[in-house]
Amino acid sequence: MEVPVLGWKDLPMAAVPFVSSKAYDTGEWAVFQPKINPDKCVKCGLCWMYCPDSVYRWDGEGIPEPDLGHCKGCGICAEECPTKAIEMVRV
Amino acid sequence: MQAVWRPDIKELARKELETRPFESGHRLCAGCGAGIIVRQILMAARKPVVWINATGCVEVATTIFPYTSWNVPWAHNAFENAAAVGSGVEAAQKKLKRAGRFADDPDVELDYDIVVLGGDGGTYDIGLQSLSGALERRHKFMYVLYDNEAYMNTGIQRSGGTPFGARTTTTPVGKVIKGKPLFKKPIMDIVVAHQIPYAATVSPAYWNDAVMKFRKGFEAEGPAFIHAFSTCPLGWGSRPEDTVKLMKLAVETCVFPLYEVINGEYRLNGPSLAIAKNPDKKKPVEEYLKLQGRFRHMFKPENKWMIEKFQEWVDKQWELLLKKAGF
User: Which CATH number fits domain A25-90: 3.40.605.10, 3.40.50.2300, 3.30.70.20, 3.40.50.300?
Assistant: First the structure.
């Protein structure tokens, strides 16, 4: 998503943020990022539940999919995965 | 009485996927516990939510101009008036409903829940007076305190919530004084003394218990207060991947017991209830302390008394809580 460039006259009154932070790629911070082994995954959803960055997309049925563009690589999901299906790989 | 709502992880996931109330791309540290707390509050929502945010990590990191991570109505306040703004929003909502304004306007929704989120600095220290006032006036909102035990956003200064012995930038470890010499303020006792309908402690690692308590907070008839435990890898010197592990250990060592107070009646929950029934399950505090850099000096042989003092304090608080809960 492109961030519009506004002059001071076009800015909203007071400090109102107006661009979704989805446009800001925090994935650049990461050194390691998760990779899910689909054979080991039991679809419990704990990686989704414990992600502080709302990175996992999960419809409740399939295997959760991490949005690596925003993953900061904290590794909570790999640590908490009950079957150790998540591996942190260097990016 | 209606049936008790139980969270279903699949349903919660679908709801989040659809609405994305808290978007990615905010700049909380990797492994920050506060992000999990915010998500769990929004998972528990039953109506549209209006979010009042005191100054703190969450406020600073999620709304860096021109970006915002919030897809819910959101207002920023100073440290000291978050609960006061929450009161104002609630009073306006009540008044508009009573006056029948916007009743036939499909664009305006007046049936919403109010969340006030404050950090430990904004609740224990600076915002205590406005919180106390709002609780006394019985405004119907949920105040959530995410307690990362220091002013992390401004550079790890000690707060009323900092535990004994912790190293912060204003309580450094020196030759004579080693870390904070004082103990944590009993904020739950202060809040419970206001005789509010619902108060609870929450550890996001026990997500089922946490989401259910947030829901109960929304459903309470009057002010609700939730004390949520939030790991801070930066300020605590812990590994980011240990965030959830520390949240679990804090409960298992009774440093942060899980309980709820419904109209003055104490009730232990989950693992804390199990420990109360079987005291052998209680772990020593060392297991919790050793994962954190801020307590590293306690493990030197000459500072062993500090761990003993910490354990003594935890045991005493736990005994007091057991008495209140009728054990």
Answer: 3.30.70.20
